[in-house]
From TrEMBL:
It comes from the Bacteria. Residues 73-262 form the ABC transmembrane type-1 domain. It holds the Pfam family BPD_transp_1. This is Putative sugar ABC transporter permease. InterPro entries: MetI-like, MetI-like_sf. CDD domains: TM_PBP2. Belongs to the binding-protein-dependent transport system permease family. The keyword tRNA processing does not apply. PANTHER family: ABC TRANSPORTER PERMEASE PROTEIN MG189-RELATED (PTHR43744:SF12), ABC TRANSPORTER PERMEASE PROTEIN MG189-RELATED-RELATED (PTHR43744). SUPFAM superfamilies: MetI-like. It is a multi-pass membrane protein. Keywords: Cell membrane, Membrane, Transmembrane, Transmembrane helix, Transport. One of its GO terms (biological process) is transmembrane transport.
Length: 277
């Protein structure tokens, strides 16, 4: 018994050591970002670099001077919330239909949905831009939100969650007189809450960090998102890296806080997608 406990403790120690080392590697870029944001441009570009932070708190003030940070933060927030809300509402409906409802061509149609994941998203830029232009939505908030309100990955993620639920729940609800819509809304949807949280966190992160589409569809600085605005701080010949790092740190804080509060539900949702499929 003592030997088994000792071996178990030793194996846990090894696992914890590896996890701590991996955590330090992942946190290192954020720490370096914070250190660089407090340096002067000379110190930030000095070789070899110094691991000590400076005292240039004015870099954070320069971010607000160089960018309409408030407008861009609001645009990013509305875009992320709009896309996330759209995916959390629409993706479960499609996922439930593919997982629980029986209709002709279900497998073929679901395969077509998954085929979208194999196509590089850059191929959709030109047709999406043309649609936004024809609708007169360039340099607008709806142009940022609409193309990201549905996700084939979100359908796949939640379909796996619905498949993991026992059929007896639906049968019991039918015996009580519930229809498909009632079963979906009152019985099945609450049980896939971890999957919904996982999809919401992923959609929020993807939307918050999206650069290519906001950079293409909106050219007015007041209509840009934070990612596009920060990209404009990079000059052709010289970049003020401390200011750029200060802006990046400010832009990263909201999603870090959201993930810190929802990380448990996020991990549960991702884990439940592989139970049955």
């Amino acid at each position: 018994m003592a030997e088994a406990r000792s071996r178990r403790t030793g194996s846990h120690f090894g696992v914890h050591t590896v996890l701590i080392a991996a955590s330090l590697v992942m946190v290192a870029p954020f720490v370096w970002e914070a250190i660089t944001s407090l340096k002067s441009l000379t110190d930030a570009t000095h070789v070899p670099p110094s691991p000590l932070p400076g005292s240039q708190w004015s870099n954070y003030r320069k971010v607000f001077q160089l960018l309409p940070f408030g407008h861009q933060f609001l645009n990013t927030l509305l875009m992320a919330l709009g896309r996330t809300l759209g995916q959390v509402v629409l993706c479960p409906m499609a996922a439930y239909a593919f997982a629980r409802l029986r209709f002709p061509g279900r497998g073929v149609l679901f395969g077509l949905f998954l085929s979208v994941l194999m196509v590089p998203p850059q191929l959709f830029i030109i047709p999406q831009y043309q649609i936004m232009s024809d609708l007169g939505w360039l340099n607008s908030l709806q142009a940022l939100i609409l193309p990201g309100m549905f996700s084939a990955f979100g359908v796949f993620l939640l379909r796996q969650s619905f498949l993991a639920l026992p059929k007896e729940l639906e049968e019991a609800a039918r015996l009580d007189g519930a229809g498909p819509l009632r079963i979906y809304w009152s019985v099945m949807l609450p049980l896939v809450r971890p999957g919904l949280v996982a999809l919401g966190v992923l959609a929020l992160l993807w939307s918050w960090n999206d650069l290519f589409w906001p950079l293409v569809v909106n050219t007015d600085p007041d209509k840009m998102t934070l990612s596009a605005g920060l990209a404009s701080l990079q000059g052709q010949f010289q970049t003020d890296y401390p200011v750029l790092m200060a802006g990046s740190l400010l832009a990263s804080l909201p999603v870090i806080v959201v993930f810190a509060f929802l990380q448990r539900q996020f991990v549960q949702g991702i884990a439940h997608t592989g139970v049955k499929g």
